[in-house]
Amino acid sequence: MDPELIDRLRTDLDSAGYDAPAVTALLGAAADDARRRGVRAPARRALDERGGTRLALLIRLFLLGDPLTGEELADALPALGPAGAHRLGLVAAAGDAAAGCRAALSLNPVEIVDARSAEPVAWRILSDLDDQLRGGPARPDHVMGVGGATRSLIAQAPPGEVERALDLGTGCGVVALHLALRGPVVATDISERALELARANARLNGLEERIEFRRGDLFAPVSGEAFELILSNPPFVITPRGAGGPVYAYRDGGLAGDALAERVIAEGPARLAPGGQLLCLANWESPWGGSGLERVRGWIETAAGATGPLDAWVIERDRVDPAGYAETWARDGGARPGGADFERLMSGWLDDFAARRVVAIGLGAVRIRRRGAVAGADGATPGADSGGASTTVVHVDQAAGAYSAEPPGARLAAAFEAGVAAARMDDAAVLEARWVLDDAVAEEREHRPGEEAPRAIALRTERPIARRVTADPLLAAAMGACDGELSLRRIADALAQILEIDAAAAAEALVASVRELTWFGMLAVAGTADASGTAGASGAPGTAGTRPRGTAR
Asked: Could you give the C-alpha distances from 441 to 464, 480, 485, 529, 538, in angstroms and in order?
């Protein structure tokens, strides 16, 4: 796309105030929410009552899919003009000459939560038209806009600055834009159309100087290079091969089963600098008699054999059966129950899963760090056992709770650090450490009326992921004493006397619980960056209070 035309488009959007808050203010919150669900009548009524502005024309064109006359298009985009809009591929003829023109691309103002910023980050994103506006099947090289999976990936990303970052499978380029807030970026994709739109989005949002775009399959375009942070929302959808159904580049990696996810997870660590992290979304299969999470563990351990020790956290956010998975993606392609295409697609997916005896599919995220000098000058975690520095740590976790309302990226990073540190300590080191309970942890007690002792105790937190942990009196009391002043051993000994239980058994039980609770973000070693009431607070140095769009807004 012509950079000069992109600059003119940006001028027009700026002067019209085309951003998410302005759209909501003009339409009203209820009408805008309905519009996002594909129900456009309330928004049209709002524009009939309050329209007449350039912003209203842009909403009609790009967000409601309404045609504009040539005169209206010229009013909406005065700097770009109708001819420029056609040259960019933004619009196309709506039919006969009297019908004017319609949007040929989506141009969405979005706000995305990112732990890098105290406020949601505002962008304008070009992509192909979504289902609600397209009015037909997607093209095979369809480029998606900003979906829920992409938002989730960005929200989970570590907030700190990096020297070099990689966006693997950039699509429309929005992940690369967020990485560019952290440092220089290389963004790759196998689709030339995706790269074309991603370049346009980088220019449109003023970050083209920070992003280098390369075409190629997975890590091939960055062979031999290393990055401090890799983010990837790859085409991980498990799609039957040779079933005759539609193939979409944004979701189908072209490999059987979950082999695409395996490749990203197994090959990615080799492209990390020491101390660097890979965060990717993935789907994985659970075969009959096996565990999908344990299969992912195996992929990571295989990667560690080539790269050296790794630290990893695999979070399974959901687990679905083959029929439910097949229905989701058959619908995604536009097929609907009752139609011949839908039945054919469902049969293809179910036959494919049956051939590998798949009984469930896990959906989640994988975080991997290449071991380096991340905790001390020698790269060792304080209190680690003699083999800890050379041992790969892989923690697999099922966590269906909601992410915290604040951007969870910093809190997830802190929980990762605390969990790895505890995993690398021997039992004696865990007992000698002084632990701090996160200030978001609450205790719940359930009593029958008139009973003094609770019949159930639980520890609860809402950050970074909502968790509820059943506790006994020993664990509840110990957590209440974890303020960084006493070692866990002293707490265990004191409570063993009070509760009249064996001191060694109390210590053993608390060590196991502490190891678990660190991954939940509930505990951290005193004196570490994540062991205070401000642990992992959203924002990063120099970004608090900003709402960047490449430039602050």
From this structure: 11, 10, 18, 18, 18
